[in-house]
Each structure stands twice: as C-alpha cells, then as structure tokens.
Design a protein that fits this description.
The protein is α+β, with helices and mostly antiparallel strands. It has seven helices and four strands, in the order αββααββαααα. The strands form two sheets. A two-stranded antiparallel sheet has the order 1-2. A two-stranded antiparallel ribbon has the order 3-4.
Amino acid sequence: MKFEYRPYSKAKQLGKKPVKRKGKKRHGEMVKGRKIPSKTVRGRITKAEYIEALRRNGDCCYICGTTLNLEAHHVRFRSAGGRGKWRNIRFLCAEHHRGKYSPHRNEQLRKELEKLHEKLYGPWFWADKYDLFKAGLIPNTTDEEFEKFMKGEEKS
C-alpha cells in the first residue's frame, strides 16, 4: 500500500468554505452611494460628444487647418485621467495626431493644447460629472449639475 501526503487547506482546517474569485472587477467603484463607471467607459468619445466638439472647436486640424482625415484627440490624455467630453477634444488630421509632430510625441504642443483648453473651459476641462462629484464640486451626478458647474468655469 502506497501512502500519499495530501494536507488539508487552511480553509478546510478552519472549517471555512473557500472564497471563489472570478477575476478582477472592472465595473467601476462606489462613491457616496453612487456607482462610478470605469475609466475606460468614461474615456470613450460618444457620437454626441464628437459632434459637439466639432461644433464648438471647429472641423479642421488645429495645427494645419486641413479638413481631411480628422481624428479626435484627447487634450488631456486618457492615461492622465482625461475623459471623452467635448471640452477635452481637439481635432487633428491623421498626420498630426499620430505623426512626428503629434502631441503624443511633442511635449510643448501637448502643454499648449492643455493651456488653451484650460483658458477656454476652466481647470476642469478634462473632467466628467463623476470627477466633479468625487471632488465635491457638484452635489450629484446629473448632467444639469455638471453643465451648470462647467458653464460657470468657462471664460466668455
């Protein structure tokens, strides 16, 4: 007869049921009883935000003025917390968005764009309603409260 050594797990020794983990949760967080969507969702540019950015910021490349092959550029990068709101979008042609002189490669141009948007829309130009709610700047996450705050920040 062959003897195999199979020790009990710590959970079994203590009489606890093992906790089943299904992987990382990526559904956002809870703040003051409100569910906050994930940063991936909040960084996306919706069709409505894209159209509003075109209307407000112009339908041409910020650098060269062309109207061909335009791409929406997050002024404050998503990796730095920038959201997909029209105040954080500036249009660049494909060459200037991904090329040698892109704000992704040119620190001076990136800073210039951020200063422009901060001057036009205030220091929270990059934020969405959840950022303002988490910072305690608006009482709830309604679009009305968000727009009311942002309009107060804009420079006319």
